[in-house]
């Protein structure tokens, strides 16, 4: 499959990918439609069936239009770089053109069939590999997160179980019966009536020489069948039972080489009974740890991650699951790597040697001799070794065996990248689903309180276990009580402790081991506005050059106190876990206030400089005022592509506005909010825009920044215009005008008037709109604001079109066009072309209108301005309707409608719906 080809998945959450990257399919209803089309592919699915799937017996009147909009959105999401659209229309039905090799279900079916052919030919290793490839395609329950018919889930669930059993048959054929016993017990526990799984477990036990256990499995399974279902076992499994009774030893594939007189250590600590999650990772690592006679060296798994992440629990879980495959012993050592006195390798080796019966006085005094004796002792044996909390590579090297029959599991907070032997396995926080499963015994995980607790704990198993322990320790406590306690950030770490478990002490262990520069950087991360940050921000808060900051960041990364979070252009990004960030905030509070204020201002001024750089390379907005007096400082970062930069930095920018507001930096708060509105406007993120401006507005008022207050009110007024809330738009724009007039800011007055022009025009008062536009144009002309002049000439033209003064409109648009050329502003040119198209349509020249609108659409699409492009498509829909091209009109209107609905632009969405109804 080529890198740019689509691949579809339903074995888990429904997903479409191109080149391994997930495509945004849109809202939940769109995902349901996508899943339905994919499951039925290559058969068409009728529009009526889609309506029935989405709404059942109560579809809304606009159901057909909504389905068309959902299909249009999916087509945009799946739109290929070149070639045909994968979703095609067949009459009143839709069809997703997907070949079997483009779907996980098709690939699963193909690999399973190949595996069964190889199994029949007794080519067991190849068969096992095919089945593993097939099962690796499953990422969770089929259609996870999407309502699906029970029979669909049951059908694919049965196929998956059959593939698991086929793979087990292949592994049994390879002689891996020892390793399979724990897995088969789990499988039979999950599906207790599966006869094939029962027979496989009996076979594996019998071949391992555990005849009594094999017979006991059959007895219990037969009793369950008779007692609960009232049926007898089949002749096939009865025959297997009789064969084991008659000649069980004959089923054994190998004898265990147990050395008489040698102790068999069993040092594994008990596992956590409620261990949940990490299913895919556990399955992957169990396969790697499984005994393999063909292996040339022992597997060494290096489980690395932050404190409290669950490394030890995972290691012990894995060890218990594979222990049956290592009959010559299981060793465990706590290496105390995060304490001030890590255990010496010699002391650890002494314990291991004594566990194998070596007398204390026979343990060599030399480290190298002890390591040599240990390797000799375990050579030829199958021994499992768990080394918990390693301090580094030097501590580990003497403890690693050379014998291929052994296996080692290591846990550490350090990256251990310098170890020559072993595979690094980063352990991250629990997924949302796994975290919820861990919390489930303590309350309703679908409740708001549960979501808040999960958010505060950030998927950290240690924090979640403390929550469970504290609920269990308090009669009558609920998740809502826990959420209330954890909502106070400064008290969060105080509350997250139970007995000898505490998040703060876990983090403090790692913090105390840091070098001074790394420790200073870590605590100053608590001054950054968000947990996700670019590398330049580290240099900003420490006030140094990028080199030392990068070295300190790398040290924190190696110790898992920060995690890489991708790149923005050439700049790496990092993330610090929320609870670790709470610890950093506590630590940095001890620094002098003036140092903290200077570091905060340094970071915020860097974001402001970069945001202005990005906004200056986007389409110019008449709403954006000249820069204010906030501090801005060029950081070591850069802006590669403005829209991508804003998309990546948006959470940090929103948090930066709040941080500036909390710090009393009203000038910085309003400037950050206003410059970011360029991105909000271009992307249709009206709710985020409103939230950010409201936060900054309070800060601007508290700081007496009247110019900023007026600018923010204009932005809020523009949002209300997009939401068709004209009374609120009028109130905020008029307030902005009064403030600008009072402080002597003519540009601010003119910008407020431009919004009021739209209010007048949209509420049926074109004459008033022309008057306001003329006044604003006069002001812009007086101060030489060419962009404002171009905008107002266009606004004047629109009002003139509404009044039927078409010649005046044409003159205004000609002036606007010349100003756009002077500005070299293609975005503004596209907006003028759109209005020229409206003018030509009003003059009954649909062909002329079509020419202008197509040119406008081409320009807007080249700039990825989907919302302005949607307005042009609405005008194209009107023009196609005038020309009698009904299908083209419907396509344009459906495409536009989906954008308006998503953005909350009700009037434009209603106009689309009205035109579509007229076409029906």
From TrEMBL:
<dbReference type="InterPro" id="IPR005158">
    <property type="entry name" value="BTAD"/>
</dbReference>
<feature type="DNA-binding region" description="OmpR/PhoB-type">
    <location>
        <begin position="1"/>
        <end position="98"/>
    </location>
</feature>
<dbReference type="InterPro" id="IPR027417">
    <property type="entry name" value="P-loop_NTPase"/>
</dbReference>
<keyword id="KW-0804">Transcription</keyword>
<dbReference type="InterPro" id="IPR051677">
    <property type="entry name" value="AfsR-DnrI-RedD_regulator"/>
</dbReference>
<dbReference type="InterPro" id="IPR016032">
    <property type="entry name" value="Sig_transdc_resp-reg_C-effctor"/>
</dbReference>
<dbReference type="InterPro" id="IPR011990">
    <property type="entry name" value="TPR-like_helical_dom_sf"/>
</dbReference>
<dbReference type="InterPro" id="IPR001867">
    <property type="entry name" value="OmpR/PhoB-type_DNA-bd"/>
</dbReference>
<dbReference type="InterPro" id="IPR041664">
    <property type="entry name" value="AAA_16"/>
</dbReference>
<dbReference type="InterPro" id="IPR019734">
    <property type="entry name" value="TPR_rpt"/>
</dbReference>
<dbReference type="GO" id="GO:0000160">
    <property type="term" value="P:phosphorelay signal transduction system"/>
</dbReference>
<dbReference type="Pfam" id="PF13191">
    <property type="entry name" value="AAA_16"/>
</dbReference>
<keyword id="KW-0805">Transcription regulation</keyword>
<dbReference type="InterPro" id="IPR036388">
    <property type="entry name" value="WH-like_DNA-bd_sf"/>
</dbReference>
<protein>
    <submittedName>
        <fullName>Pentatricopeptide repeat domain-containing protein (PPR motif)</fullName>
    </submittedName>
</protein>
<dbReference type="GO" id="GO:0003677">
    <property type="term" value="F:DNA binding"/>
</dbReference>
<dbReference type="GO" id="GO:0006355">
    <property type="term" value="P:regulation of DNA-templated transcription"/>
</dbReference>
<keyword id="KW-0238">DNA-binding</keyword>
<dbReference type="Pfam" id="PF00486">
    <property type="entry name" value="Trans_reg_C"/>
</dbReference>
<feature type="domain" description="OmpR/PhoB-type">
    <location>
        <begin position="1"/>
        <end position="98"/>
    </location>
</feature>
<comment type="similarity">
    <text>Belongs to the AfsR/DnrI/RedD regulatory family.</text>
</comment>
<dbReference type="Pfam" id="PF03704">
    <property type="entry name" value="BTAD"/>
</dbReference>
